[in-house]
UniProtKB/TrEMBL annotation:
<dbReference type="InterPro" id="IPR004302">
    <property type="entry name" value="Cellulose/chitin-bd_N"/>
</dbReference>
<feature type="domain" description="Chitin-binding type-4">
    <location>
        <begin position="8"/>
        <end position="166"/>
    </location>
</feature>
<dbReference type="InterPro" id="IPR014756">
    <property type="entry name" value="Ig_E-set"/>
</dbReference>
<keyword id="KW-0503">Monooxygenase</keyword>
<dbReference type="InterPro" id="IPR051024">
    <property type="entry name" value="GlcNAc_Chitin_IntDeg"/>
</dbReference>
<dbReference type="Pfam" id="PF03067">
    <property type="entry name" value="LPMO_10"/>
</dbReference>
<dbReference type="GO" id="GO:0004497">
    <property type="term" value="F:monooxygenase activity"/>
</dbReference>
<keyword id="KW-0732">Signal</keyword>
<keyword id="KW-0560">Oxidoreductase</keyword>
<protein>
    <submittedName>
        <fullName>Lytic polysaccharide monooxygenase</fullName>
    </submittedName>
</protein>
Length: 184
């Protein structure tokens, strides 16, 4: 996920992203998609291309780097976290699927499906005041991780993909993402 600091890139990870992909990843998050995924995510988004959704326009998001900025994340008292996605183009939903990178995965390596563990799956969630509010139990985790999210439409075979760099244990926050692709 892109932090506000990447909007005018001065940090090395954001500069590298811009050098590979130009400026599209800084404003066009809703295009990290596959038009014909239809639930076959591992077939249309191969290992090493998860963060770009295997869309060449966003290839810079797949750069293996240890310096991507991470958003602090921590479960609330009930053990859950609310992800809030702005619904700028609302769609009927088949699945919202959340994965977390395994503790042994290194961000210096390309992200693969085998590096992920599913921790939350939701069906159709209604749009509320322009947002999808997705409450998921967070797995026990610490340190820097990637939360990978897939949004499969029910009214089309199109699916959207999101990588969120997070750091467990710093503070309790709810994160808001525009179409699942922007950090607050």
């Amino acid at each position: 996920m892109l932090s506000q600091r990447c909007r005018e890139p001065t940090d090395p990870a954001c500069i590298a992203l811009k050098n590979v992909s130009g400026t599209a990843p800084f404003y066009d998050w809703m295009s990290i998609n596959q038009a014909n995924a239809d639930g076959n995510h591992q077939a249309v988004v191969p290992d090493g291309t998860l963060c770009s959704g295997n869309n060449p326009t966003f290839a810079g998001l797949d750069l293996p780097r240890t310096d991507w900025q991470a958003t602090p994340i921590q479960a609330g008292a009930d053990g859950s976290f609310e992800f809030i996605f702005r619904g700028t183009a609302p769609h009927a939903t088949r699945d919202w699927i959340f994965y977390i990178s395994r503790a042994e995965w290194s961000p210096a390596q390309p992200l693969r499906w085998a590096d992920l563990e599913e921790f939350c799956r939701l069906g159709n969630v209604p749009l509320q005041d322009g947002n999808y509010r997705l409450r998921c139990p967070l797995p026990a985790a610490s340190g820097k991780r990637v939360i990978y999210q897939v949004w499969q439409r029910a009214d089309s075979p199109e699916a959207f993909y999101t990588c969120m760099d997070v750091h467990f244990g710093n503070s309790t926050v709810d994160a808001i993402f525009d179409d699942g692709f922007q950090a607050p």
